[in-house]
Hints:
The protein is mainly α. The protein has helices at 5-30, 35-47, 50-61, 69-87, 100-117, 122-147, 151-154, 166-194, 196-212, 216-234, 236-253, 262-269, 275-294, 303-307, 333-362, 367-386, 393-420, and strands spanning 313-314, 323-324. The chain has 17 helices and two strands.
Amino acid sequence: xPLTLRQQRDRISLYWLFFLxxxxxxxxxxxxxxxxxxxxxxxxxxxxxGDFWQSAFGQLFDTPDLRRPFFAGFVSILIFCIWIxxxxxxxxxGEPWLAMYVLAPALVGGSVVWFAMNLAGVWAYLxxxxxxxxxxxxxxxxxxxxxxxxxxxxxxxxxxxxxPGVRDAIALGRGVxxxxxxxxxxxxxxxxxxxxxxxxxxxxxxxxxxxxNDVAANxxxxxxxxxxxxxxxxxxxxxxxxxGWLLLALLFAAPLTALAPVEALFERFGGVAPPSWLHRIxxxxxxxxxxxxxxxxxxxxxxxxxxxxxxPMIAVPGAAAPVSLMPTHPHNMFxxxxxxxxxxGVLSMAAFIYFGMRVLVAAPLRTGVAVAACGAAGxxxxxxxxxxxxxxxxxxxxxxxxxxxxALIHSLYRLRARQRS
Length: 421
């Protein structure tokens, strides 16, 4: 029997996504920033479908009621992006278009989530297998690269001018960061498809990639994510609520780093803790102390990059040379929102987190979805607090990739329920 036009379109879309998933491991290893354009390309099958525009946006605007968490969450992120745009007019950087750095991943991420939730029959299973193999494959190659000192990256130019392996080590660590949130979706999918031990194996490969590439933030992120995923296995709704409130607590408590006794910490942990950790504490304390001057409206999008030009140099115990008190960004996304976007940015982001939590809790939440969501939330929380920047689009794309995996889990649950009925 010949395929209908819709079936032909869906088959082409699946082949396109299979091709992209085959490229994803290479993207993570050779160019972590490529996760953002990868996500854009993955969104094309959704944007090409009329029912996407009717269904996704119809759900938003047919009943525009702020009492609906889904609509309220959309309005919250829209206000956040509009405020970024407006802040660009008083920011020293003068770049209102930075709003697209957040709005584009949000819209594109929403499209791939919608597509993953609206796959028919066997194609949902096939795409789930592709997702698992892409994430596990990427993590596996990253683990091997970490253990071999970047063998594959070393075969390709350009050859770094500094100490051998430094550039590759940084890039590989960021490749792990790009995949870390999605590891939990891939593990949960693998458990559904092939059993819990296979799911545990997928997580083990992800953790091995983090450990082999010697980035403490990634190891901490996956450990925090594992704690959230484990909680979700026992109490899915309670875990989702806990993760949501934890993210809100980190956002609102971030300025308390102004109280950090930097000199005492330098004296106590100098020569023990890595210099990058001590430097980060000094940066956070400096940013937090500067926040009151920027309130209520914020100093403007990407203000930290301008501040870097006049920031003093400080001596950090263990560092080879003095370092700037303000790097390119504060290495803490929560503090960055406070500093650059002020109260409007903080409150709109808080609303987005809160209503996102409400959407998950109000839905018929399955354990696998909760495991993926809470695992990713734990990993994302650590990344946001210790190294993330709002203007690194690949980090936001990594969050959307994890959400796509959670949406595939939801699709599999729904298909299995239909098969039983």
